[in-house]
Amino acid sequence: MTTPSPPSAHATDEVPGSSVPVTYGELMDGARLCAARAQRAIARTAFADADAARYVLTARARLLAAVAHHGEITIGPLVVQAWRDSAPAHRGVEQRDRRVLGALAWLDTLHTRAPGFDDQAPVVAPESGRSPAGVHLDRARALVAAASDLIATHRGPDGALLPTAVPAMGAADAVSLLSAPARLAAMAGAGEPLALRCRQAGLARDVIDNSLPLGDPITAASWDLAAALRFPASAVAPVTAHAAGPDTSSPAAEWRSRLDRIATRLRAAQSRGRISVRTLNDVATLGLVTSHVLATSPGSNGDPAPDTPMSPALGPVGGPVTEQWRALTAHLAPLRSTEPADRVIREDVDRLLAIAHPGSTTDPPQSRQLLQAIRASLPTLDACSAVAGRLLAASADAWVPAKPRRPYLPDLHRPGHAARAVEPPPTGFPRMGSTIA
């Protein structure tokens, strides 16, 4: 995703500290900064004529339409539809959360900001030129559209989150994701002194009342929502555009990109404080295969003989680190937990195991490059081992399932007492540094 270029020289100001906004927080901060500059320009400078005032009203309405669309994209169209379809009352008592009601009221207010306004209709600048306020509002709308595109990269065509989306977007409190657009709407939706400037420029009273109704409902609804949310910081401020798939140009590049993605998702699991033992078993399996590949590859400088396979099938050969990985995988294999396994890590591990197989490549230069990439990725794998070891030590959601019994035999265990607690592992997640000759 690329940030749209500034409409004119008046809107060349970027987010402080960054020439090109790349995160969600930078885009929304830039949009709020442009909205503040538009309000300051309206307060300081009168409009040249009625056409210039009408253009500013149109730019403001288009910005608010972009904010409304962005709010629905951020929390998800499916979530908004579920909120609207839920029963509004039960025996006279409202069942929905106050913040959900505030979010729906805020969205409805933005959608009805200007009756009959067409957001997709082309806008022609007046002959007198666009005023600084209109330029800043257009710039803010471009940044909001870019933020919507950024969030949309984490969702599928149906609006559901992708399996590889950042965990913060799938949080249970979806209303808190509206904190940034609510602040922007409160800044851009202020009707004063815009109404005075439009009246000063000669616009008819009915036109002004249609675009800027009395009571300033947009600002009131925006601040009501922000107050209901208790003004939280946006949980998705550091989110960037959804990364493309792994680099499959060569086995070495694919090994690096997939292992980096595994490390990223393990750090996300560490921030949540929970992970499935099945995912830990996948990481241990990857460590076992990597250790075996390095222990059985000839040469200590990363250049095996061209006619030598990269690694044989897993067998009894291996160093002490390989035996530690083998003991750890044997300990994790029978364990179960209620936490679902990470499908992305499972897919990446399966692909890396296929790449490490001796029959995956028959080109000697590619084999050498792959072996060098595996050796170069040892610090990343050590970091994954450290995170996995801490998660395993802090996990209380793991048990050994009961042994299967014949259906005609009576069950001697009461419900919930068939499984048994997990014994401490024989060894922790080892480090790969000692594997290199």
In short:
This protein has 437 residues and is mostly helical. The protein is built from 15 helices and two strands.
Description:
- The protein is mainly α and 437 residues long.
- Helix content is 52%, strand content 1%.
- It has 15 helices and two strands.
- It has helices at 24-44, 50-75, 77-85, 98-111, 132-152, 179-188, 194-201, 205-211, 217-229, 251-272, 277-296, 320-332, 343-356, 364-376, 378-394; strands at residues 399-400, 420-421.
- It has a two-stranded antiparallel sheet.
- It starts with 23 loop residues before the first helix and ends in a 16-residue tail after the last strand.
Layout of helices and strands:
Layout: H1 24-44, H2 50-75, H3 77-85, H4 98-111, H5 132-152, H6 179-188, H7 194-201, H8 205-211, H9 217-229, H10 251-272, H11 277-296, H12 320-332, H13 343-356, H14 364-376, H15 378-394, E1 399-400, E2 420-421
Antiparallel strand pairs: 1-2
Helix pairs in contact: 1-5, 1-6, 2-3, 2-5, 2-6, 2-7, 4-9, 6-9, 10-13, 10-14, 10-15, 11-12, 11-13, 11-15
